[in-house]
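Sample pair:
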Amino acid sequence: MIKNIVVFFLFTVALVGAEVPRVALPPPGPSRYYIHVVNGLSKLGLLVHCQSKDDDLGYHRLLNHGDDYQWNFKVNFWGTTLYWCKLETPHAYVSFESFWPEQQHLWLRDRCKHGT
């Protein structure tokens, strides 16, 4: 009787162990990210200032249509890298987050050109 209970118990443990759901891991992100800011304004110069908590990239003037500024970086160990930019013309400005790590979705990747 005890032998049957032991066999049943071991069989149950083996069956439950075989049914452990596998967690789907997201594909690894790129080792390096590239940010590319382009002046798409027809006749206005653009002043660009981008930074993270630890890295101020300074001010850059994009004077003509098509001028660009770019930089690249790796996400920090904790996955909390965040960059933001302020773009200014003589009469207006906009400030926005230009990079944040996407852990759950591919939103950022799908809206950017591959490799840029």
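The mean pLDDT is 77.
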